[in-house]
Amino acid sequence: MRKNYLHIDFKGITPLAHKWPEYLEHFHDLGFNGLILELDCKYAWQTWQGATLDHYSQNDIESMISAAKKLNFEVSLLIQIQGH
Question: Which of 8, 62, 65, 75 has minimal CB crowding within 10 Å?
């Protein structure tokens, strides 16, 4: 099956976690079946606690990925590393 990925960069938008299943249905209806999630500073990194106040919890991320997998999305996390 051909993959049609949608790249979501969370530094530009921050969808409400509880609305994520609704957004996924919409993306699915548009023909997307893969997601690249660039969490950036919207994740509560354990290595730098308190670095951001507006972020998703670990449970939020797990729920979002679980909802995506229920619709057969392939999910990849894009994480910036040194040298970016």
Answer: 62
